[in-house]
Design goal:
The complex is a heterodimer of chains A (about 260) and B (about 240). Chain A is of the alpha+beta class and about 260 residues long. Chain A contains eight helices and four strands. Chain A is elongated, with a radius of gyration of 31 Å. In chain A, about 20% of the residues are buried. Chain B is an alpha/beta fold and about 240 residues long. Chain B is built from six helices and ten strands. In chain B, the strands form two sheets. A six-stranded mixed beta sheet of chain B has the order 6-7-8-3-9-10, with helices on both faces. In chain B, strands 2-1-4-5 form a four-stranded antiparallel beta sheet, with helices on one face. The chains are: A alpha+beta (about 260), B alpha/beta (about 240).
Chain lengths: ~260, ~240
């Protein structure tokens, strides 16, 4: 019995820690989405247009649903921009003819790779390079990390419930057997069992939330950045998901054990 | 017909207990089952409750195959086994009240009915004792109370008086007899057939993988004399 309790206590602790980590990961992912992505949501591509290809380029970008917006710069405008960018070279740039400053465009797109592919088909007209691409790798990494913690959290929850139910089954087998003999329906036996599990999991979830709150305050304190607070709906959602998953797993485990208990 | 066994067979591995068993039990009858130990009386009882499935054939209960009934059909059956099935760490009162708790009977009503039964069986002073503290006879009576507290339509009792002295055994049989007279069907296995000599009691005998219906006492016992009724039934109306 002592071994059972020790196992359960350590699993419950693991559940709290993993729950906390899951929430923190969720919080960081949300921040990456909200702050970083807001600033660099789309990729920017600089395209150098060859002489006389501006009309064809306009047709191409206007028909492409991947393009969010584009700005065309004429040769004259490019010469002006260069002069204002490098004032020391103004005297050198001024006498140069406009043909040395080709027409260009800055295109904002959702998917840089797809846009570049479409440009490659017209490589004789355009030359292009990516100016900026959003940090999709970070976003992917944060999402994968959240998914991993989510899976680990689910696994721990299943283990917590399984070992708890094992202990209860050993203790309650005579009662279940007698109740079965007297015609009790399974839900009558499941109800008190579910209540116990629910109290345990709710308490563990609250501890996980507290842990996440404390750690997130520490992160905010040590890493100065424009952190946004986790909305209340996420905390509440975590609790609701915990309750829902506990109910489903508990009933599944209970029913499989209940069926094995001999009647009378 | 309450129960019908149709070509029922039962075997535990190579050990065969019943072969092609055909048996019917009518509603509103009081029957006893006799036979040597190990002949299969308890197995027959367990199959009737649906606690054990037959290896072959079919058992029909109230016109439907027993396998088609949900577990709730057991609410209509009061079962008393030879050995205690109660919860040893719970009180006597709680153990007796379990069927009513399952049926969602109000608390006050439960208390009233439990106390009435414990009073009838002389167990009131033991209401708050743990089941494990009871003697064999007291446990048998508490098991009886738990089986009958719902007023079941069918009472199956497997050697219900095995742990009781003659006076207490007669008292329990009187209670069963009252239930029978109120319309319940009673089926009892026993090693003491002389206790059941009322002329209307039906007799079954189990031996050699089969159950034989012998008939009512009045037909079975040679030169049946109505005086052979149990002492406890004296003074009651025993006419057929």
């Amino acid at each position: 019995m002592m071994r059972f309790l020790m196992k359960e206590a350590s699993l419950l602790l693991a559940f709290v820690i993993l729950g906390g980590l899951l929430l923190i990961c969720l919080w960081i992912t949300m921040n990456i989405h909200q702050s970083v992505m807001r600033e660099f949501q789309s990729a920017q591509i600089s395209v150098i247009l060859k002489d006389g290809s501006d009309r064809k380029f306009k047709e191409l970008v206007e028909q492409n649903s991947n393009v969010i917006r584009y700005d065309l710069y004429s040769a004259y405008r490019n010469k002006e921009r260069l002069s204002s960018l490098y004032p020391d070279l103004k005297n050198v740039i001024a006498p140069l003819e406009e043909k040395f400053f080709p027409m260009s465009a800055v295109v904002s797109v959702r998917d840089a790779d797809a846009f570049l592919k479409s440009l490659q088909q017209n490589s004789q007209i355009f030359e292009s390079q990516i100016l900026h691409q959003p940090p999709t790798q970070i976003r992917r990494f944060a999402s994968v990390l959240t998914a991993v913690f989510g899976c680990l959290w689910l696994l721990t929850l299943s283990l917590v419930l399984y070992f708890n139910l094992e202990r209860i089954t050993i203790r309650e087998e005579p009662r279940w057997s007698l109740m079965k003999m007297l015609g009790a329906k399974p839900h009558l036996l499941f109800k008190p069992l579910w209540t116990g599990q629910m109290i345990r999991i709710c308490m563990a979830s609250v501890f996980a939330i507290l842990l996440a709150v404390i750690v997130s305050y520490q992160i905010e304190h040590f890493f100065l950045w424009t952190w946004t607070r986790m909305p209340f709906s996420v905390w509440a959602g975590f609790l609701v998901v915990s309750i829902g998953v506990t109910t489903i797993i508990s009933f599944g485990l209970f029913y499989s054990r209940y069926r094995q208990v001999a009647i009378g | 017909m309450l129960f019908e066994f149709k070509k029922v067979g039962k075997a535990y591995g190579p050990h065969r207990i019943f072969r092609n068993l055909d048996l019917s039990i009518e509603r509103g009858t009081f029957s006893i089952l006799t036979g040597p130990s190990g002949a299969g009386k308890t197995t027959l009882f367990r199959m009737m409750c649906g606690l054990e499935r037959p290896s072959d054939g079919e058992i029909v209960f109230l016109g439907r195959s027993l396998s088609e009934h949900s577990a709730t059909h057991l609410k209509h059956i009061g079962i008393v086994f030879q050995s205690a099935r109660g919860l040893l760490d719970e009180t006597v009162a709680y153990n007796v009240s379990i069927p009513l708790l399952i049926d969602n009977v109000p608390k006050k009503e439960i208390e009233k009915r439990v106390m009435k039964w414990l009073e009838t069986l002389g167990l009131r002073h033991r209401a708050n004792s743990k089941y494990r503290e009871l003697s064999g006879g007291e446990i048998q009576k508490a098991e009886f109370a738990r089986a009958l507290i719902r007023k079941p339509r069918l009472i199956l009792a497997d050697e219900p008086t095995a742990h009781l002295d003659a006076i207490q055994a007669d008292m329990l049989l009187d209670i069963l007899w009252d239930h029978y007279q109120e319309g319940a069907t009673v089926f009892i296995s026993t090693h003491h057939p002389p206790r059941f000599e009322h002329p209307s009691i039906l007799r079954y005998h189990i031996a050699n993988n089969a159950v034989k219906r012998l008939g009512a006492n009045a037909e079975v016992i040679p030169d049946y004399v109505p005086d052979l009724i149990p002492l406890s039934q004296l003074g009651k109306d025993t006419t057929l």
